[in-house]
Amino acid sequence: MTSLLVIIVLVLLSIALWQLTKIFDLTQVGSIKDDSQVANDGDNNVQGYLMFGFLAFIYIFTIYGLIKWGPLVLHTPASKHGSMVDSLMNITWVLIFIVQAITQALVHYFSFKYRGNKSNKALYLADNNKLEVIWSGIPAIVLTGLILYGLYAWTDIMFVDKDEDTIEIELYAQQFKWTARYSGTDNVLGKANVRLIEGVNTLGVDLSDPNAQDDIVVSELHIPKGKKVHFKIRSQDVLHSAYFPHFRAQMNCVPGMVTEFAFEPVYTSDEYRAMPFMVEKVKKINDLRQAKSKELVANGLPALDPYTFDYLLLCNKICGASHYNMQMKVVVDTPEDFKTWLSDKPTLVQEVKAANAPKPVEGAIGADSTKTNDTAVIAKIAMK
Amino acid sequence: MSAEGHDHEHSHEHEHHHKDTFITKYIFSIDHKMIAKQYLITGIIMGVIGVVMSMLFRMQLAWPEESFKIFNVLLGDKWAPNGVMANDIYLALVTIHGTIMVFFVLTAGLSGTFSNLLIPLQIGARDMASGFLNMISYWLFFLSSVIMVSSLFVESGPANAGWTIYPPLSALPQAISGSGAGMTLWLVSMALFIAASLMGSLNYIVTVINLRTKGMSMTRLPLTIWAFFVTAIIGVISFPVLLSAALLLIFDRSFGTSFFLSDIYIAGEVLHYQGGSPVLFEHLFWFLGHPEVYIIILPALGITSEIIATNSRKPIFGYRAMIMSILAIAFLSTIVWGHHMFVSGMNPFLGSVFTFTTLLIAIPSAVKAFNYITTLWKGNLQLNPAMLFSIGLVSTFITGGLTGIILGDSTLDINVHDTYFVVAHFHLVMGISALYGMFAGIYHWFPKMFGRMLNKNLGYVHFWVTAVCAYGVFFPMHFIGLAGLPRRYYTNTNFPLFDDLQNVNVLITTFALIGGAFQLVFLYNFFSSIFYGKKAVQNPWRSNTLEWTTPVEHIHGNWPGEIPEVHRWPYDYSNPAHDEDFVPQTVPMKEGEVVLHH
């Protein structure tokens, strides 16, 4: 419907334009026909007014956008550093809107006000050093402020103190899926390399590393509220980007190196879901989905599931054909729930052991060389 | 102006020196004016391909669950069976759209056209320093265009790892279909393109330095020439770095080296690569990639400076400040590339440095914007289509430039990096702005190129619909970016979180389709006016610069007699010491006339 309206408006607009210029053609028929294809006073007049109209268009479109699409943008940050990011963002926006409103007004108003006329002559003005100093000085001062705040925040976010109390979690990216590895009770991740990938050890963890003994691998990310989580990020194939929009966090995943990002969640998933803006957003989304479901059902297709909010980890660097569907659910638990959730997860070593345990029936037959290797590794670990 | 009177005697004599066959005149021409037209028309053809691609992927984004017959017609059964676009080809369209628009339209089509046309004409030279090199430059560019277009037809599909072709995705055919033969052709095409661009740039630099006519000091050059000159220097500095990146990538792809690859496990096996780094590629790529946006926008700003001054009937405000800001932008543009890599995993300390240098660029940019606005102030604005596009450029350059303050700030970039916010920002600030610059240049210099005028009413319709649609497309896009929607997603239907953004996507696509369709008005105007346009007079816009002292009919060597001598700067509009509101550069200074800009 909106699109139809837009089409109609634009068609009418172009007809109006056409007619206006036609009228000016016709008014000149009596006098000398001007087909020089150079703007004459009539053109300047019409185009000048249109310039003024365009200013109105920009203003109205901006205000309309803020009202209509403003509520769509990411709201309350769910991480501690996020509020710092958002306040810098808000300050920047205020500046941008002020400058935009003024400069667009000047550009378009001048285009209207000084539209050409045969009887006018332009002001012969070539230079004014004072003005140049003013309008390079003001942005310089304002930008210095923004840069200083930005750098302060950046340093705070990106540099994690060695002795800061954090939980270490590995985020592991591959085409088109995320996996997480918890560092366990020692809070140190075991070494890993893609050359060690084998069987259930899909992350290539070095099972002989003492630090790897208590590592836990899962496909749903749980993190505790109120504790800084230090992510060590790896990729096994191409570039990916770990993007947590609600936490204002993002870092690329680069094969061959470990990248890092740390943040502290401040709202559990339940708390965030219960926030008024989120309740409203989810309701709106569900209304849309319901309307669509009706259509689907009418066509004999299954209806859409209703939506409940979850934090998400998205891939935000083109990584292949199914890049558009690389996501992982993120759950922020209370510290207690987090502990409970993690406690009943088997460690990777246990999983590997279970997978390699000789199966009762065919155990004797299929012991190939890799398997013996594996058992050797596990035996070694067990001895320690 | 002194040369004008001799037009006739000399032109005959001159034409007899050259016996032009069809081939030497229209195809393997060494005349800069013909080469400019060749660049322009090739650029327009590539532009049509690029824009049609964007229409297709915009339709896919707005109506991901629909099928369109047009998809099947244009993409074929393999990529759009039953009119449903495949995800590989979606990424290919996005990739090739970016490549074509950035390099083939807005670099070659814009800079190639107007540098070639205007450098000799505006500095008072018979031709480029090396006409032959100039011809080779165009034909290499043409060849690279042909290869790029032919890559659309290879069986495994064209390159589809994004126009930034980050390895390992672009290096491994196992990772994505387009990284097979399509990527090879892309790299070969780009290597030729870079060679063409370097030849062109060297020619521009040498010509501007050596072939200026008597009296044409550097501070009497039109700002167009300053922009082209500095652009060429940036190109010579940064394009070779992309060439090296492309060559190293070819080595990694074909000869098993590990410049950019390390520790890769894909399709069930470990690859042998060890020790390379994709981040190195990002550095090399953006060392060109960022200056590239200035290679695109500076010529557009140069063109706009000239057109705004001429049509305001007023000197460009702050001529020297404009030159200084071009130089400042050029210098800074080579030390800001890291702002594309804030979250690439490079040392965060570098992020601080690049934030600082990036935000500095806002200062010379602001100077330019304010100087344009002051030029309009108390002018006598002749609102020709070229002028409208120039004013439009100032408007979109400001709107797009302002959001650069967000993206250039590493802290804020964390959350908007690679979202549609970025797409909105760069399309406005360098895509649409440069396109406006290109259109402005075409409307303004069409009479110089083809000896005929473009229809102004069609020009007005073209401008206004384009202007409304450009904001209609890119303004709402900021919001979906701020909602966290990543770019390069084939569809968002897997994320109920983004369901409420779908209406916005439909609106964006609607504007895009209308805006795209109205470019037909321009194409019609352009091609019909070449043959049937109103015959141009020698100086239709009553401009000061030298190109308008040449005869309307093109001749080799540009001026039939002596090359005119230059006596003043190019912006003497509405000088109270003169009766006319323009004083061409060839008019000698009156006794006691004050030189304003020195």
From TrEMBL, chain A:
Record bears the keyword Phosphoprotein: no
EC number(s) reported in the record: 7.1.1.9
Domain Cytochrome oxidase subunit II transmembrane region profile: 66-161
BP terms from Gene Ontology: ATP synthesis coupled electron transport
GO molecular function, one term: cytochrome-c oxidase activity
Location in the cell: Membrane
Domain Cytochrome oxidase subunit II copper A binding: 164-344
Endoplasmic reticulum among keywords: no
GO cellular-component term (any): membrane
Pfam family, one: COX2_TM
Membrane topology: Multi-pass membrane protein
Classification via SUPFAM superfamilies: Cupredoxins, Cytochrome c oxidase subunit II-like, transmembrane region
Primary enzyme class: translocase
This protein's UniProt keywords: Electron transport, Membrane, Respiratory chain, Translocase, Transmembrane, Transmembrane helix, Transport
Transmembrane annotation, as ranges: 47-67, 88-110, 133-152
Family, as annotated: Belongs to the cytochrome c oxidase subunit 2 family.
Protein name: cytochrome-c oxidase
TrEMBL record, chain B:
Key word Metal-binding present: yes
Subcellular localization, as worded in the UniProt entry: Membrane
Biological process according to GO: aerobic respiration; electron transport coupled proton transport; respiratory electron transport chain
PROSITE patterns xrefs: COX1, COX1_CUB
Domain Cytochrome oxidase subunit I profile span(s) in chain numbering: 22-591
Transmembrane segments: 39-57, 89-119, 131-154, 185-211, 223-251, 284-305, 317-337, 349-374, 386-408, 420-446, 458-484, 504-527
Major subcellular site: membrane
A cellular-component GO term for this protein: membrane
Membrane topology per record: Multi-pass membrane protein
InterPro entries named among the record's database cross-references: Cyt_c_oxase-like_su1_dom, Cyt_c_oxase-like_su1_sf, Cyt_C_Oxase_1, Cyt_c_Oxase_su1_BS
Keywords of this entry: Electron transport, Heme, Iron, Membrane, Metal-binding, Respiratory chain, Transmembrane, Transmembrane helix, Transport
Single GO MF descriptor: heme binding
Domain of life where this protein originates: Bacteria
Family: Belongs to the heme-copper respiratory oxidase family.
Name of the featured protein: Cytochrome c oxidase subunit I
The organism of origin for this protein: Flavobacterium alvei
